[in-house]
């Protein structure tokens, strides 16, 4: 009966919402009052340092391999070096296994980081809850995480999407609202701490505070990281000219597992999704390492096993806000044709501090001498969604271009987060939730139709047969 109810709800939802309907785009009239944001003071309880000498802090995990059977667990000990060791098992307080990793630290201007630990925990079982312990003696801390289902086309899974978070009171609302969503993994589209808004030693201090701030989520579920412009930290006046120095030291990615030459771009498979992370601030023009890697990675995508193809980047390809308008044009020119050819389902981006969702459109027919000058409807194109509204101190981007372009389906300058709930190989539910004075308010939603399984007549027949069989089994009960 639950499956039948889901089918009825899905049918109604499809009639009311689609990922490329013919209605005019909507510019929300909601106006957010708090502008600009302010960072939470460092003595606030959200940044509390765990008690005990050398107690682990800033705990965060990410996927550690290509297929979801490993995690990278990272943390910082502030007082002195100690073994990078994780004890873990499937029962709370009973740790049957041990994994060891590596420790590092770095300086930024005169700031000296704590001791940063990264441990790969691999050979895990799918769909299993693991408990883990880090640290020594009375200062040890315990957490847990759950592995995803095995790779397969019909495993439901729920992702959260957050971008441009920072560490303001609005950031806190976003984080708390997300944690109530029931999502299992965050797809993070860049700009983590906004520590680059500070100078000298305060840059490193604000990376530490942000790590403690997000630990309430990052210690318990993977965040799939991508970097933004505020993570670059190119600061010649401080003699700091190594881009992404703090980010790369603190937030590792499983790039080697997907044969990437850089931690800035990589791919993972999780449940029924193939997720590709691109770098907006690394070379991506023809024949560069990122370009070559993406060309090969798209060939590795198996839509029979992972029907959902998702791309993350920081700069949006399509954006109708005055802020950062057309900044994504060079990446669009390099990669949009590939996205359409390989039927990418959705592209998530940040950077613009507002929310916007596009229809399925493309501009791949245009060239300097002929072709369509403007984006046109394209059923093979992705939906482009900008979620750069986490809550950082720069405030909202409230100046949308007028009139609203035909490619823009919905836009609003508010703080918030999104969720993508994959139900099966053909459909997923998408929601964007606004932060309205501390309340979580659903503001935009639609059914996302899978590009691969919706495009082939053979697959549509298979889907119809699968649905008929499912309803038949329900009726027999």
Automatic annotation (TrEMBL):
Cofactor: Zn(2+); Fe cation
Signal peptide interval: 1-24
Pfam families from the UniProt entry: Metallophos, Metallophos_C, Pur_ac_phosph_N
Domain Purple acid phosphatase N-terminal: 56-147
Alphabetically ordered keywords of this record: Glycoprotein, Hydrolase, Iron, Metal-binding, Signal, Zinc
InterPro entries documented for this protein: Calcineurin-like_PHP, Metallo-depent_PP-like, MPP_PAP, PAPs-like, PAPs_C, PAPs_N, Purple_acid_Pase-like_N
CDD domains for the chain: MPP_PAPs (cd00839)
Record domain Calcineurin-like phosphoesterase: where: 158-355
E.C. number: 3.1.3.2
The Purple acid phosphatase C-terminal domain, residue ranges: 381-439
GO molecular function, one term: acid phosphatase activity
Reaction(s) catalysed (UniProt annotation): a phosphate monoester + H2O = an alcohol + phosphate
Family under the similarity heading: Belongs to the metallophosphoesterase superfamily. Purple acid phosphatase family.
Protein name: Purple acid phosphatase
